[in-house]
Every structure is written in structure tokens, then in C-alpha cells.
Amino acid sequence: MLDKKIAAMLNGQINKELYSAYLYLDFANYYADEGLDGFAHWYEVQAQEERDHAFMLRRYLINSGVRVRFEAVAKPDKSFSDHLAPLQAGFEHEQYVTSLITAIYHAAFEQKDYKTMQFLDWFIKEQGEEEATAEDMVKKMKLFGSDARGLYALNQELAARVYAPSATGPAM
Ligand code: FEO
Fold it and tell me: Which domains does the chain have, with CATH numbers?
């Protein structure tokens, strides 16, 4: 049986991941409205991945005999001044999510809950990748985004992202 505090933190993380999906869909809404369909597509795929993260956490709790309970998902209410702004907001958001995952990991460590630590290993790695990707997108946009041809090329590049449900996923 999971420690109550760890279970509550994991349950809370489901909400954060669903919020991430909602936030990134909102970014996609913005880019679609701006005519940047590649950027919109990229964030639609990202939203699907975030939803998957929520499902993984939910499944882990269910498999651990925990009754999952949902809270309201917050409204993403960001307005953007330019095409770079969502990318920067995305990078900051991933850093925030990493801090949340790290906090759960630390709590699991303190409880000697090695099973949850093993489960979270996948998320720790995933956060490292997501932060690196988000930072890379900010850098590319700063380098190429102010030029129309550069922006067009970036849009094409992002349009090529393919959604693939995680083949491995975390250990359950
Ligand atoms: Fe599920 Fe982007 O963190």
C-alpha cells in the first residue's frame, strides 16, 4: 500500500499533467489562429503526450490500490505578445513540472518507497528530454523566427512531429 502523502502527491500530479495537456492545446489554439499550423500540430502532439502522463500516473495509483480522485483542471489563461512567447512559457512550464516530479521523488526516497522511485525514474528522464526540447525550440525561434523564410522552415519542421504512444513507459 502506498503511503498516504505519496499517493496524494501522485494524485495531484495527474491534475498537473492534464493541465499541461490543456495548456499546450491552448498554445496550439494560438498558433492555429496565427496561421502557423506546424507549431499548432507540434503542441497538439505534446498535449497527447501529457494526457498519456496523466494516464500513467492514474494507472500506477489504481495498480497500487489507491482510489483516484480528480480536482478541477485550471483554465490556461495566457495571452501571447508574439510567436516566441508560448515557447518560452512552455520551457518555464516544463521546469516547473520537473520540480513537481522531483518533489514526489524526494518524498518517495524519504519514505524508502523504492517502487514509486522506480516508477518515477521514467518521468525524471522524460522531464530531462522535455526541458531540453523546449529550450531548443526557444533557441531556434530566437535564431530563425524573425525571418519569414526561417519561420516557414521552422513551421515545416514542427509539422513533421509524429505522435507515438510511449513504447516503454514507466515501470509499474
Ligand atoms: Fe508531463 Fe511535459 O510533463
Answer: 4-159 (1.20.1260.10)
73: left (phi over 0), alpha (psi -120 to 50) or beta: beta
DSSP letter, residue 83: T
Q: Which atom of ligand 1 is nearest to the CA of 93?
A: 2
Ligand 1 contacts (CB < 6 A) are: 17, 20, 50, 53, 94, 97, 130
For residue 148, report the distance from its CA to the centre of ligand 1, in Å. 30
Q: Whose CA is nearest to atom 1 of ligand 1?
A: 50
Could you list the pLDDT tens digit for every one of the 172 residues in the chain? 899 999 999 999 999 999 999 999 999 999 999 999 999 999 999 999 999 999 999 999 999 999 999 999 999 988 999 999 999 999 999 999 999 999 999 999 999 999 999 999 999 999 999 999 999 999 999 999 999 999 999 999 999 999 988 766 787 7
Q: Which one, of 94, 106, 116, 109, lies nearest residue 20 by Cα?
A: 94
Q: pTM of this prediction? A: 0.96
| C-beta of residue 130 within 8 angstroms of C-beta of residue 95 | no
